[in-house]
Amino acid sequence: MVLEKKSHSLTLKQIPVPSPGTGQILIKVKVCGVCRTDLHIVDGELPDPKLPLVPGHEVIGQVVTLGPGCAIFSEGDVVGVAWLGYTCNSCEFCLHGSENLCDKALFTGYTLDGGFAEYILANEGYCYPIPTGYANAAGAPLMCAGLIGYRSYQMISSFSETIGFYGFGAAAHILVQIAVAQKKKVFAFTREGDRNAQSFALESGAVWCHGSETQAPEKLDAALIFAPAGNLVPKALTDIRKGGTVVCGGIHMSDIPSFPYRLLWGEKTLRSVANLTRKDGIGFFETIDSIPVQTETKIFPLEMANSALEQLRSGGIRGAAVLEIG
After folding, report:
1. How far apart are CA 60 and CA 246, in angstroms?
2. pLDDT by residue (tens digit) across 125-140?
3. 3.40.50.2000, 2.60.40.10, 3.40.50.2300, 3.40.50.720: which CATH number matches 148-272?
4. How many other CB atoms are there within 10 angstroms of residue 41's CB atom?
5. What is the Cα–Cα distance from 83 to 89, expressed in whole angstroms?
6. pLDDT tens digits, one per residue of 265-282
7. Domain range 24-143+296-324, its CATH number among 3.30.450.40, 3.90.550.10, 3.90.180.10, 1.20.1440.230
8. Which candidate, 157, 152, 194, 203, places its Cα nearest to that of 175?
9. What parts of the chain have a pLDDT lower than 50?
């Protein structure tokens, strides 16, 4: 499924199977999750995508061909491909552990062709071995919703006990399971009147869930904003206690309205999450090895990718949408 112009529907096309170059592997895609970032790309909210583009960056598949110099994986291995697809490994960000900020970074399904296809090329060093239990549609959302959610979660103090999740979709329904296992209390906020999402949050482990305009029943130690709505920032700052942290976990957000300094005062922290590092991926998979997570998915065939995106756009996906390909 190919994006040929920004703000246009994807087109089903037959394209040549790519050949791996040095350090690359060719992967036969089994499943690919449909992420809100894919929606931002298709809707033209992220600048300068590769065009034409095969979207998709929550990929699980099987290695079929190794390019020259590959030594990490073998043919037949099941691997995952995530958003970060390449970094220069030589700039100050890369050398100081912040490869997610590399100015020359390339991203799967954005500046590199992604997984809405039968095959994908990936740089071997940016792929992850996938445990058997996640080598299926249930594992696809882990490759972005899980990874970015985990990086966002790592941004708050480990001493945080009460945490607000603003927006309850793919990332939140994974992360709440980790937080609950670590004895945290999660308070969830959804769109006003979204009873389905509110029920989902409570079923997933949240102790409380209401619309985003409702005041939290107690002061929160931290807040994670997954919804791309800038108006949630001053609301979250209102909900957290002194010294608390608000993390904006998305790659795109509507404009943040002005707010009085008193909402930030008290040594509160407001920060964003940009992309992820491979270290995040390793840490995340180590965490879910000891805290297994369940994902809820809605399956679509490849040719129904536009329908999956539209249902995601309208809030009609409970959990995560996944394209089943191979």
Report:
1. 31
2. 999 999 999 999 999 9
3. 3.40.50.720
4. 27
5. 17
6. 999 999 999 999 999 999
7. 3.90.180.10
8. 152
9. none
